[in-house]
Please model this.
Amino acid sequence: MTIIFDQSLLFYYFFTILQIALTNPDVNANYFHIPLEEPPVLCYAQTMFTTVRIYPHAHYRAKAMEVTVFMQKLKYVFIHIISIAIFFTLCVITPSLAAYVILLLLLARIVIFLIPSTGDRIRFRTESKRALLVIDLQEGLCGERGSYSNKEPFLKAVNDTIDKARADGDMVIYVRQVFSSLDNIFGCLAMGGRLSGWDHGSDFVSGLDIISDHQFIKHQQDAFSCKALSRLLTDHEINTLTIVGLDASACVYKTAISALRRGYIVNINSKALLSKSKSMLNKMLDTFRQKGMYVY
Model:
């Protein structure tokens, strides 16, 4: 049997064929043809008995995409649950000493992941040189398969901020979170593998305006944990940062705190931030102000 198909429509192809076979009395035994409005997106299923050709309607395509997105989200939940179950099973069945070592390693990774980094303070400069940091706009977070809601206005606000930075001649820098190698174990335990290097969820979100090659990967919440980012900012004598992205209470906050420690002036675009809830976002905006950042 040879099948050529658009993967996102697999389920709808199957059920459409089945429905026609069961309900349409005029179906030719050797040839099914579904004339619908959309330009042809062909699927041939060839066997020794019959050939099936389908022209999917836009409604079917949308429904199939919803199924695909749901299955992707379900995959992350499944990986998350299975990873936690395997981890605790290992802790139970291994000798006590080994279990303590495993727990200590996990605790150490969590601490490293969460704590903002420290670094040398930048030299004082009278001239303002600015850069825009775009944090964690990734498919697994704010894409169709992402875990955040209200994503469309947020993405538009980020792109508007990028356009303004480009017009003002500011440097635009993109940072994303990726778990790789052995760190994938922690990534599966913490986020169900949605930001693992082998998964499409770690890619930049579709629709994000990418206008520069200044793109960095971080392995902690704090973007300054990426030494290459610090070197770039130092080499270009940047002293003012505008930060947008997500999550306002996690990666954005840790990056902003690290920037303050290093002597940067930090600006926060409130419209281009995302958090799990509106109340959490408002709380974080107050925190940014209290820490001495300019929120607009």
In short: The first strand starts at residue 2 and ends at 4. Residues 133 and 173 are 5 Å apart (CA to CA).
